[in-house]
Amino acid sequence: MPANTMSKAERDQSHARVFDLSQHPLRELNQALHKLTPGSNETAWEVLHPMGSHSVAVGVDQPVSIDVRGSVGYYCGGMNDGGAITVHGSAGPGVAENMMSGSIVIKGDASQYAGATGRGGLLVIEGNASSRCGISMKGIDIVVHGNIGHMSAFMAQSGNLVVLGDAGDALGDSIYEARLFVRGKVESLGADCIAKEMRPEHIELVQGLLDKAGVTGVKASEFKRYGSARKLYNFNIDNADAY
Amino acid sequence: MCGIVGLFLKDKALEPKLGAMLSEMLICLTDRGPDSAGIAIYGTATGNEAKITVQSPKPDRDFRGLDADLAKAIGAPVSVAVKSTHAVIRTTPDKVDAAREALQALRPDIRVMGAGEAVEIYKEVGLPEAVVDRFDVRSMTGTHGIGHTRMATESAVTTMGAHPFSTGADQCLVHNGSLSNHNNVRRELVRDGMKFETENDTEVAAAYLSNRMAHGKNLGEALEGTLSDLDGFFTFVVGTKNGFGVVRDPIACKPAVMAETDQYVAFGSEYRALTKLPGIDNARVWEPEPATVYFWEH
């Protein structure tokens, strides 16, 4: 295909630096990514044969795009700060843990504690996420096309979790100020998490996140909002018996 | 940590490769548990032969002449196939209890790893690759099997502390996690006549299952009971004569991934362990739900 008829993404892809994890150790990949400096021309990367490896593309801090062709193990894209990482497969526990900025898209499912402690950026899971999705999230936006497991958004502090499917038991237990939006059914709410009114600003927020996550055919008004009842913020002597 | 693998074959053409496939799966998880490793392999039960897998700290001494001594003691034909520190004793199914009793008198240092018509259990201290080599697991054929690589937390690194643990005829258990009420449960089981070899938490889980089944529960019911009676973290995989079962505690911190194709059902603590299985790219891959008992049987 002549270069002038290709989209920017296709042009990037055609020049992508290809890294085959069946031929080279993971450490070489991550070190090469860490050596990137602002303005580098190596803006597109393709990772082949991840075979469930741990820590693929952890600590990326430049705005590069990385396509991982297959499923990954623990902690893929951890601490990502500006990278656009796409996993064309499923992800093991702790994907996008402590992400700072950028985006991570999982084409398949994600295992437990996806997006844990994330401070920024966008995590999109096109399949289901299992337990503890968004645990202790601190500013990250997470959009899950499918369902999420139990204890999701436990102690979630800020950021937005948007779930197109259902949520498991104890959603938002001990939640602070994160906003949770679930389109399907919620198995149960955790301590101090309550259903809240969807006001126009929330519709706008959810619609913006659905657009960013490439979700079509779903209306923001179909979601219910959940958040903190703010009863557990401070120690209350009347609760002493519960400790 | 600890790593668990399980493989249940639907396609008979894969049976000669069961040992090799399980070995690769287990070796892949070496960094989840380098202390000791074990494997249970189920061959086809013929109905007219029983197998007792035994282990000895002094195999040269204990296995020499064991076939003749045991045959004389129980009055039935006995064969003994030695594999390193383990040996598989074959006799008629009605003589298993008599053989186990006679073993205690004839060779007091021998420990029974497991018994049944189909199962053979091998476990030792060391890396999975060393354990697999020692017992030539790669050459073994079978219908299904489970394996474990251990990172010890609750008891010493010994052969008897390695997994799988036998829970009854043709049944065994492997565990990823740690139990916090095992001392209490052990005391209750001892009061009910159960015997223990180690201070290990998983041995308590195995004895719990055996005990519940001795009280008339089936394996599924006994596994359901673990959800309320055992406190702690666990992903259990149990081997049975016809297949295997999986149960995770309600919190489900300990990882588990399953894959199913027309040829097999596979279990791994991580997806990594499944990546070399045939057709894995098109397999249905999922995480077993917490507090849910699963079974696959022939």
From TrEMBL, chain B:
Keywords: Aminotransferase, Glutamine amidotransferase, Transferase. GO terms for molecular function: glutamine-fructose-6-phosphate transaminase (isomerizing) activity. CDD domains: GlxB. It catalyses: D-fructose 6-phosphate + L-glutamine = D-glucosamine 6-phosphate + L-glutamate. Residues 2-298 form the Glutamine amidotransferase type-2 domain. Its EC number is 2.6.1.16. InterPro entries: GATase_2_dom, Ntn_hydrolases_N. This is glutamine--fructose-6-phosphate transaminase (isomerizing). It comes from Mesorhizobium hawassense. The lineage of its organism: Bacteria, Pseudomonadati, Pseudomonadota, Alphaproteobacteria, Hyphomicrobiales.
